Amino acid sequence: MHEIITNLHMHTRYSDGTGLHADIAKAALNTGLDAVIVTDHNVFVQGPEGYYKEGKKRVLVIVGEEIHDQDRQPQKNHLLVFGADRELSQHADDPQDLINAVNKVGGLSFVAHPFDPPQSFVNEADYNWVDWDIQGNTGIEIWNGLSEFKGRINTRLLAIFYAYFPKFVAREPKRETLQKWDELLNTGKRLVAVCGSDAHAMHASMGPLKRTLYPYETHFKNMNNHLLLPEALSGEASADRRLILDAFRAGHNFIGYDLPAPTQGFRFTAQGKEASVIMGDEIPAQGGVTLQAHLPSLAEIRLLKDGEVIAKWKKQQTCSHITTEPGVYRIEAYRRYLGRRRGWIFSNPIYLR
């Protein structure tokens, strides 16, 4: 398998961001990303998709969309859409109708920032997802960078501190989001987890202080989606785009918080009597299955089954667990950074049936 690093959920001047697609590509090139997926609000921007290059470096920019009903007050139900290759915001007033439209054209859809806190300090409402009776969406954004930042800045002093020292912001996905994901998985749904930057590169001021809150490059050094592809990227945009979207669709990815330490090289696999699978795949439990995780460096590792922790390892780089019990198994890893225990790696599940 070939591992690449992808960041998604960001905005440009076409909606409420401050940069252009070329600015995002430059920030991605500077941070070593392989691909980015831009999702402006309720507008499908045609034209800027493709490879951007600088010397021997290249990054693939994929254009998607973040769709929501603009007439609804307060705002709810934001859906990340990519791979649809057309404008679908006309379906925004009904989340299920929107998801059906995405599926009809072969696109992918992810519930965005499902539990997004209000922040009265900066006059921001919550933008939660509320219509949980939906069917057919590809997955859910379990970690959103901007939502976490917004939830921290509830005083003037904290706003200034985190604006100048964003490395202290990220801790882990919201517990409510992980619980909802596990709850939905336990109903038999297969839902792919992703992380999103929700990058806007917002310009802010407070008296004489002026700052770009979370520049694109800052986001790209934080939480990323690490995809496992069956072959290396070729440099041909349409073929590589297809590889990336197929990997997201299959759940062949994990979420890595790359600032404390590189997460590249993490693997979570299952070996059965007749097959071996990776994250996102299904394998029969009959006859016994060996679940194995390998991390790029030492960490606290947790193995979860159906949302419950069933095994823990301290300061380990590898772990294994043998089982014959059907269920939804996934890995979480934590490590210390800047004086605090923080989420580091969150795998997509392996399904034992």
Low-confidence stretches: none
Q: Give the averaged pLDDT, no decimals.
A: 95
* End-to-end gap: 24 Å
CATH hierarchy class name of the largest domain: Alpha Beta
Helix- and strand-based class? alpha+beta
Overall spatial form: globular
The CATH homologous superfamily of the largest domain is termed Metal-dependent hydrolases
| Fraction of residues in β-strands | 35-45%
Radius of gyration: 20 Å
CATH-derived topology of the largest domain: TIM Barrel
Number of helices: 7
Helix content: 10-25%
Q: What profile does the largest beta sheet have?
A: 18 strands, mixed
- Spell out the helices and strands N to C: EHEEEEHEEHHHEEEHEHEEEEEEEEE
What can you tell me about this protein's structure?
The protein is α+β, with helices and mostly antiparallel strands. The protein is built from seven helices and 20 strands. It is globular, with a radius of gyration of 20 Å.
